[in-house]
């Protein structure tokens, strides 16, 4: 009888020392620290909404913003009115059309390349306008584009851009097009021999600082 009592007591000790299975009641996962991004990626696009004040040159305001921020700029669209616009139309090479009066912006497209491209260069600002009678006319902007009332512009900025010559040859396709690719902006090296874009692809002009914007 004494031996049986001793065995049952030992079994009770073993059960009390065994670690219970599962998570203890009321326990929770430790909170993970938040991931904070302190620097934008060089290849990321950043959306912007600009409002150009009435009487300002829309093109100069965009160029000045891109130059001061040291970023490229891709103009997506705009709303508002402009006045006294001079356009170059593709149907009449070399000739310009001057529109007098106030016109509503239907579409606005253009771009500014980031450094090391020449500063203050607006590369091809194209606009479509609607007149008071509903007629629509468009073309490349020549000269100033003066806002008549507030003009709101949607755009995206970037730090890096690459220039690729198309179509790609067999060698370029095999090596991923590295031989025909040139980078602009950020830490990439400009591989063009003359320090600029080819004359048949882009044309550069000297930008002027705006006194109003």
Verbal overview:
It is a single chain. With 213 residues, the chain is of the alpha+beta class. It is built from 3 helices and 10 strands; from the N terminus they run αβαββββββββαβ. The protein has helices at residues 2-17, 58-69, 170-174; strands at 46-52, 72-79, 81-88, 96-112, 123-130, 136-141, 146-147, 151-158, 161-164, 181-184. Strands 1, 2, 3, 4, 5, 6, 7 and 8 form an 8-stranded antiparallel β-sheet that branches. A hairpin with a 5-residue loop joins β5 and β6 (136-141). The longest helix is centred in the N-terminal third of the chain and has 16 residues, at 2-17. The radius of gyration is 32 Å and the shape is elongated. Residues 186-211 have low confidence and may be disordered.
Rg measurement, Å: 32 Å
Helix content: 10-25%
Q: SS-based structural class? A: alpha+beta
Shape: elongated
Averaged pLDDT, please?
Answer: 75
**What's the count of strands?**
10
- Please provide the ordered H/E string of secondary-structure elements: HEHEEEEEEEEHE
Helical stretch tally: 3
Ends distance: 103 Å
Low-confidence stretches are 186-211
Major sheet description: 8 strands, antiparallel
**Strand percentage, roughly?**
25-35%
Keywords summarizing the entry:
213 residues; alpha+beta; 8-stranded antiparallel beta sheet; two-stranded antiparallel ribbon; 3 helices; elongated
Secondary structure blueprint with pairings:
Elements: H1 2-17, E1 46-52, H2 58-69, E2 72-79, E3 81-88, E4 96-112, E5 123-130, E6 136-141, E7 146-147, E8 151-158, E9 161-164, H3 170-174, E10 181-184
Antiparallel strand pairs: 1-8, 2-4, 2-8, 3-4, 3-6, 3-7, 4-5, 5-6, 9-10
């Amino acid at each position: 009888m004494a031996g049986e009592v001793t065995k049952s007591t030992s079994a009770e000790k073993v059960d009390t020392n065994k670690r219970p299975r599962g998570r203890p009641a009321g326990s929770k996962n430790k909170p993970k620290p938040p991931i904070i991004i302190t620097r934008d990626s060089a290849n990321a696009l950043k959306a912007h909404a600009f409002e150009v004040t009435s009487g300002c040159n829309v093109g100069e305001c965009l160029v000045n913003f891109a130059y001061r921020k040291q970023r490229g700029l891709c103009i997506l669209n705009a709303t508002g009115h402009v006045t006294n616009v001079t356009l170059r139309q593709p149907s009449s090479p070399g000739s310009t059309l001057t529109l007098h009066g106030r016109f509503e912006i239907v579409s606005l497209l253009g771009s500014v390349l980031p450094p090391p491209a020449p500063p203050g260069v607006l590369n091809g600002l194209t606009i479509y306008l609607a007149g008071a009678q509903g007629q629509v006319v468009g073309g490349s902007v020549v000269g100033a584009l003066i806002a008549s009332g507030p003009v709101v512009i949607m755009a995206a900025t970037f730090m890096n851009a690459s220039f690729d010559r198309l179509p790609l040859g067999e060698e370029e396709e095999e090596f991923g097009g590295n031989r025909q690719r040139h980078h602009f902006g950020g830490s990439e090296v400009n591989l063009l021999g003359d320090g600029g874009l080819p004359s048949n692809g882009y044309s550069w002009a000297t930008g002027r600082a705006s006194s109003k914007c």
